[in-house]
Amino acid sequence: MTDKRVNGSAVVTSPQNTVEGFVKEFLRELSFGQGVTLERASVNDQYLALARTVRQYLMARWLETLQRQREAQAKSVAYLSAEYLLGRQLDNALLATDLTEVVEEGLASLGIELQTLRDQETEPGLGNGGLGRLAACFVDSLATMSVPCIGYGIRYDYGIFRQTFVDGWQVEQPDNWLALGAPWEFPHPEAAVTVHFGGRTETYDDEGVERTRWVHDWDVLGVPFNYMVPGYQNGRVNTLRLWSAKATQAFDLQIFNSGEYVDAVRAQTFAENISKVLYPEDSTPQGKELRLQQQYFFVACSIKDFVDYVLPEDFDLHRLPERIIFQLNDTHPVIAVPELMRVLVDEKKWDWDEAWAVTQQCFAYTCHTLLPEALEVWSVELMGRLLPRHLEIIYRINEEFLAEVAAKHPGDDALLERMSIIAERPERSVRMAYLATVAGSKVNGVAALHSDLLRDKVLPDFSAYWPDKFTNVTNGVTPRRFVRLSNPALSELITEAVGVGWVTDLERLRGMEPLADDQEFREKFRAVKAHNKERLSTLLQARDGITLPADAMLDVMVKRLHEYKRQTLKVLHIVTLYDRVLRGELDPATMQKRVFAFGAKAAPGYHMAKQIIGLINHVGATINDDPRLGGALTVVFPPNYNVTLAETLIPAADLSEQISLAGKEASGTGNMKFALNGALTIGTDDGANVEIRELVGDDNFFLFGLLEPQVADLVAAGYQPGRYYEEDPALKRAVDLIASGTFSGGDGSVFAPLVQNLLTEDRFLALADYRSYIDAQDRVDAAYADVEGWTRSAILNVARSGFFSSDRSMWDYIDRIWHTPPVVSR
Length: 826
Ligand code: 26V
Description:
CATH class of the largest domain: Alpha Beta
Helix content: 40-55%
Bound molecules: ligand 26V
Number of helices: 33
EC number: 2.4.1.1
CATH architecture of the largest domain: 3-Layer(aba) Sandwich
Keywords: Carbohydrate metabolism, Glycogen metabolism, Glycosyltransferase, Pyridoxal phosphate, Transferase
Number of domains: 2
Number of strands: 27
Protein name: Alpha-1,4 glucan phosphorylase
CATH superfamily of the largest domain: Glycogen Phosphorylase B
Distance between the termini: 22 Å
Cofactor: pyridoxal 5'-phosphate
Structural class: alpha/beta
CATH topology of the largest domain: Rossmann fold
Largest sheet: 10 strands, mixed
Mean pLDDT: 96
Family: Belongs to the glycogen phosphorylase family.
Low-confidence stretches: 1-9
Shape: globular
């Protein structure tokens, strides 16, 4: 045992970093933690014991980090996010502690394979897609950069649903991620906080001052569960604190006392429903009461936690902005703004103005969308019923804000209506993005183009009013998980080329640029890709019984299923190639062999998205089985795409599909992961694609499609998809093949809604971009045939994508928004 004394008080011990030290602790965890002998231990016993052993190695660092932070009284980031899509924890913890080899050897000496235990872990899928995964990358980067951060969120009992296919159609299964034990979490029921809901407000006289209090109707407990967020080999461990809802005693007793035992238990279920399940929608808010309960629940817990427990007891809250910045991850946590106001004004009895001055400095807001239908609004009726005091506070914030605007722009009532936090139509409601913009010290978009559009098209009145409030921070991804862990072969090659420092300083990848012209290096690079394809092939065979053909280009589109992302355009390309073969325009014996891989979940109530999933699977079933193709084209769609699958899929890809309609994808982060792993992108001028193309160079990126201003013009002029269908025979044939039932057993009605939608509405201009897309795909085929040229481009994609490290994103947030310097080790 190695002892560590922190400040002469807490004594923390870490097991020894040797094979023997590890084996000893592992066996102790098996017997004392799991209560089994090695001989009798199941794989799950072994996994749980391993996880608990590894976390022992992090414990001293965690406690020391907390201690040091308290001493330094440094400013922290509180990242408020309803979602964290963490991925598996074991490998990341092993990397952070540099224990992989020790553990591998130690387990082997006991006859256990590390990989078997890795595969036992169920990933916590506490997020929908890009927004949740971004939060996970950000907390990883902050820990690695030694920046104080607490991530706050919700510990859903059920994360994003598990996707299955029945006859090619999506069927959702609950994701019971806690079923086999949760070795990475630390529950603290003793530190639970109470959250109130419902009721009414009343005013009272407080020594001559009129004050308001909230007379609530019901409450729940928020129980914190802590998770370690280890920095990469830097001795730092930050905290992620997720809240779980539990019925309060008062809640139970009230009903128990009336003898209604069954009702009491039911009521308990009601309270605990709040953190039961993640909403699987990621685009159109449903305005559901439970969702607002979730949002208020976790931010109320988090603010109370920070103010009452993280800060020292005697802390003067007037100095709160010196110690915290609450970063609002989209509008989901924006109810935190009136909550902090309520705490300061009602509970701490401050004046409104001084409370508002402090509150405004404590928040910043990140917007993650451009789709108007994705901007959250809550009806005044619901808000008033669930959070009556918060509604009053929002009204007052709005009143004072509009008075200020009116003073600057006298007589401009239209402006006031446009900028009001309260919308009057179609129903009276609170515009959460406006509330966040008014309250936040900064508002940022997530890629350069997105931030421009946010400023000029989504919030133009606000950006004219506060030009300095608006800024950009381009997203990033953590190179620890998405290169170092997910692509060990490439990591080794990179290290060979530029040394070890790239894992925390990704711009060093630039050092690889000259090697793109080195024949020998290119061969090694190709060997890495080939190895990764084999790894994927083995996984898909075992996971889904899918067989991948060898020697094919791997063309991948993985992301949530949404019409704006245009998976349909990808399908039209596949059908077009099929049609060309059937017509004899392409010879399957000589054409470029391709595997089209999809991964995508559709929101359960999003019918068109589910049609598209059905279409992909039906096209796949038809094409994969058609002997006339001779195996030249293969469609694979492994169900349940998640972080774990991404980690094997992305490193194997040759081509990355980033084909959203220009102006619709805020950033994308999958696009960055592919480029960093040496795939070339075929993409529109959208989101972070713009910056990827600028960096990797036009020659190493396949651009197609309308530009955002062209999209705007075309839509303004009245877009008619039917004209593209009539005028492009190849497009017509592709659509007709689908419409005629070629992929649905001759039954044209199966995909009729989708075809109808494409021909008459096509909100996201798939038909308008079809020709340009097909031409670009033909260029892809030609480029891929030049093996050396393709490899060169792939290497340049890796070498020039260092900008997309989430470490860089974090530096930008620190510089432009947070002003939270790292706390360096002693
Ligand atoms: C919206 C909603 C609406 C209500 C129901 C639950 C829910 C959950 C999440 C969202 C957020 C959707 C926005 C989102 O995920 N945006 C994505 O954010 C990524 C990270 O910034 C970015 O790369 C993607 O382009 C963007 O679509």
